[in-house]
Design a protein that fits this description.
The strands form three sheets. The chain has a three-stranded antiparallel beta sheet with strand order 3-2-5. The chain has 297 residues and is α+β, with helices and mostly antiparallel strands. It starts with a helix and ends in a 5-residue tail after the last helix. The longest helix is centred in the middle third of the chain and has 43 residues, at 164-206. It has eleven helices and eight strands. 12% of the residues are buried.
Length: 297
């Protein structure tokens, strides 16, 4: 009885020393006398003290920051690119037995894969189509780490650091593109305006009275703005009798076979020459006051 009680006490103490508690997100890879035993957890597990050991493995998703990498793209542009990788352990026994440090190994694999993939794409594709690049990176890294019991959830390219010269060149390219679009839009507006004006002119040519109505509408719009000056458009038909009176002196003699009607409009060159002759005659005639002034004694 004296021997049984100490042995029982030792057994109880040994049992308490062999108990381990694993959290819900943890698993324990147990080794018995150096050999792989089993994957324990979660909860309360028994590991014989002195004979068995375990290595805790977290099953939560971990974020690995990929440091900036110097990359030369397919179109020979040097950039610095950094990314972030999200991973989790899917098989704890493989993560412990197949690789020494799966965090460090996954980080190094992600860096080399990032340089190799971005070296095969152009700069425009890197800046505009990141989702495709992220999918390619995730697929390659996930296939390589599957044997280690690692599952890659996502790979995201965070930042692309461009040289200052490339930034200035891209700014000039964007400015030139905006100017091109502005000129194209202005040209399209001019085309549409010219087509609309041509249709309006065709309509006014069919109905001469519509032009007079347009004149009156313009006068109404001017008067509504409280202007002190009002412009009245006068049709050229009012001046036609005066132009026809001086037409024989300024126009060349007509031939008998000419079919021009007697009230036809004069050409613009004849009108300008007629106005020039009238101005010369007005300058040569003395003023009336000077002609009536009595001679000085």
């Amino acid at each position: 009885m004296d021997v049984l009680m100490p042995a029982l006490a030792v057994a109880v103490v040994y049992s308490f020393m062999s108990l381990r508690v694993l959290r819900q997100y943890e698993r324990g890879v147990a080794f018995f006398l150096g050999r792989f035993w089993a994957t324990k957890g979660p909860g309360l597990v028994f590991l014989p003290a002195g004979f068995a050991t375990q290595k805790r493995v977290s099953l939560r998703i971990a974020a690995l920051d990929i440091p900036p990498q110097d990359v030369i793209t397919r179109d020979n542009v040097s950039v610095k690119v950094n990314a972030v990788l999200y991973m989790r352990v899917s098989n704890p026994s493989r993560a412990v037995l197949e690789i020494e440090d799966y965090h460090y190994a996954t980080s190094q694999l992600a860096q080399t894969t990032l340089r190799s993939v971005l070296g095969e794409v152009e700069l425009d594709e890197l800046l505009s189509d990141r989702e495709k690049i992220n999918a390619v990176l995730k697929k390659i890294i996930d296939e390589r780490t599957e044997a280690w019991g690692i599952e890659v959830s996502a790979v995201e390219v965070k930042d692309v650091d461009l040289p200052d010269q490339m930034k200035r060149a891209m700014a000039r390219q964007a400015e030139a593109e905006r100017e091109r679009r502005a000129k194209v839009i202005a040209a399209q507006g001019e085309l549409q305006a010219s087509q609309t004006l041509a249709q309006a002119a065709h309509t006014l040519a069919q109905e001469p009275s519509a032009l007079q109505l347009r004149y009156l509408q313009t006068v109404t719009e001017i008067a509504a703005e409280n202007n002190s000056t009002t412009i009245f458009p006068i049709p050229i038909e009012l001046f036609r009798p005066f132009l026809n009176a001086n037409a024989p002196a300024a126009s060349p003699p007509r031939t008998e076979g000419s079919s021009e009607p007697p009230g036809a409009a004069l050409p613009a060159s004849h009108i300008s020459s007629l106005m020039s002759q009238l101005r010369i005659q007005a300058a040569q005639e003395p003023p009336k006051e000077a002609a009536q002034e009595p001679p000085k004694e």
